[in-house]
Amino acid sequence: MWEMAKQRDAYGEALVELGRERDDIVVVGADLCGSCRVTNFGDEFPERMFNTGIAEQNMTGVSAGLALSGKTVFSSTFAVFATGRAYDQVRQSIAYPELDVKIVSTHAGITVGGDGASHQMLEDIALMRVLPNMKVVAPADYHESRKATFAVSENEGPFYLRMGRSSVPIVTEEETSFEIGEASVLKEGSDVTLIGTGIMVSECLKAAEMLNKQEDIDARVLNMSTIKPLDEKSIVKSAKETGGIVTAEEHVVSQGMGSGIAQVLSESDYHVPMKRVGIPNVFGESGESDELMEKYGLTAEHIVESAHDVLERR
Amino acid sequence: MPGLEESRVEELEEIARRVRVHIVKSTHEAGSGHPGGSLSATDILTALYFEIMDHRPEEPEWPKRDRLVLSKGHAAPALYGVLAESGYFPVEELMTLRKLGSRLQGHPHVKTTPGVDASTGSLGQGLSIASGMALAARLDRESYRVFAICGDGEIQSGQIWEAAMFASHNKLDNLIVFLDRNKLQIDGSTEEVMSIEPIISKWSSFGWHVLEINGHDMDQIVDAVDRAEEVHGEPTIIVSHTIKGKGVPFMEGSLAFHGKAANDEQLETALKALGENDGGDY
């Protein structure tokens, strides 16, 4: 089986390397610096690390001020606070003036686990993808989190980079290139396409294997690590070539990646059957990550079921 | 204390008078805007751009310039008036305020207007932005200063106090804030809507160096910044007592002109009061 690692560990390590390469990189945190893995950066570059305490709105504004002064800013806290608590600050102070601030959240999604609904951010993709000027990236695993950290630093302007709390399977290769706005094909296939983002990419791969073994269904798997801008070309190509789409995300199905893909398809020439796997429009609850994934419909089995639905409707 | 030469004070007051004319005319032309809070902040802005700040209108992005964050972004007409008088853009352009395609948006926007240092308008956010700028100056070992102007009603916003804590914790002595204490907000007097007093002890207890001045007195404005410069290890807030609508008698102390422009008749009266008898066509 796959090796496991935390996305945020990769982020923290990449940040230190970035700090060595560029002295205009600064980091702002809001008390959760250890949880977000930015303390190593702070240890090595104390003068470039700022902690606002439990004050995410100020964190966001301070990040804007630093960016207006020529810095590339990494602003990190839990997804629920980064995008929810400080939404107006992100909108007015960062997205509107299009500043070079990378809002990097950890602890996104239901796999936060025991903390419960208050901390399980399931709406952040929706909040960020609707904002003009904001780009949204959700890496699949450890390797992609590292690459995405470098990639967002090289692309000027506001980004939302979304990561989780838990260790997740490493499903990509260390060496493969990573481009913002480009989906990668992790498995070729011709019967149906499974499009995952973030930690759901590994569930898509599992689902593809199950479909193949049990019923000889040849599913393609796409890793949609950039949610905005969406790789429309890959989406339409897959619709055309496989005739059906299943999307999977650790987010409410309304207004997430799947919604974005549905929008792309509905305006394309390929109105193929589609099914979105994700969390219904409800709040989460406390529990173990795997229990929550099961209860809220986020496992490979759910993806397989959705693939059947799509195939039947074709 | 030497203070400003009397003739210099007169020069600054004449510039401020012209800025007030710009405010009244541009908001009248737009048919909307916030003349009251623009007029109360006019003398502070004039003193900043014509006496205090080191800046280059011909090079708006000059990296070593002093910065100004107009946290009370609805006073944009005053900022635009001062920027136009400084030469950042033609005075005639002021009449495009709030119009489609204009570089002069209803609230300041860093991407459209030369000389604007931060996008503001959603109250409570500017002090955090200014704090980030002050941190960057220190990090880059630059000596530029960061000024911010906050509204008095604005300090009801929680983020202001997050930033207040942050600036004093980080000893941002290159940050100087003017609090435009005009005593009114859109729903009434600040003390009726949500009392902000005692202001002085609040900011002192947050670790700020606090000064108190008449915000319409050029000498006091300039002197307060001089005194702020002498303080090390603490940010300074200059509580500036002002009159909402200052300079236009029927707007002074008036709630009605917080967010409403003068009509044709009122414009004429206002211009007369401001000593602009020719109607002042641009």
CATH topology of the largest domain in chain A: Rossmann fold
Could you name the CATH topology of chain B? Rossmann fold
**What number is the mean pLDDT of chain B?**
97
Radius of gyration of chain A: 19 Å
Number of strands of chain A: 14
Main interface pair? A-B, 29 and 34 residues
Global shape of chain B: globular
- The figure for the number of domains of chain B is 1
Question: Over all CA atoms, what is the radius of gyration of chain B?
Answer: 18 Å
Give the CATH architecture of the largest domain in chain A.
3-Layer(aba) Sandwich
CATH superfamily of chain B: Thiamin diphosphate (ThDP)-binding fold, Pyr/PP domains
Which residues of chain A form runs of ≥5 with pLDDT under 50?
A: none
Helicity range of the residues of chain B?
Answer: 40-55%
Strand order of the largest sheet of chain B: 1-2-3-7-6
SSE-based structural type of chain B? alpha/beta
Spatial gap, N to C terminus of chain A: 33 Å
Biggest β-sheet of chain A: count, sense, barrel?
7 strands, mixed
Number of helices of chain A: 12
The H/E string of chain A reads: EHEHEHEHHEHEHEEEEHEEHEHEHH
Word description of this protein:
The complex is a heterodimer of chains A (314) and B (282). By secondary structure, chain A is an alpha/beta fold. Chain A folds into 2 domains: 4-169, Rossmann fold; 184-313, Rossmann fold, CATH 3.40.50. Chain A has 12 helices and 14 strands. The mean pLDDT of chain A is 97. With 282 residues, chain B is an alpha/beta fold. In chain B, 40% of the residues lie in helices and 12% in strands. In chain B, the strands form 2 sheets. Chain B has a 5-stranded parallel sheet, sandwiched between helices. A two-stranded antiparallel ribbon of chain B has the order 4-5. Chain B is globular. Chain B starts with 5 loop residues before the first helix and ends in a 9-residue tail after the last helix.
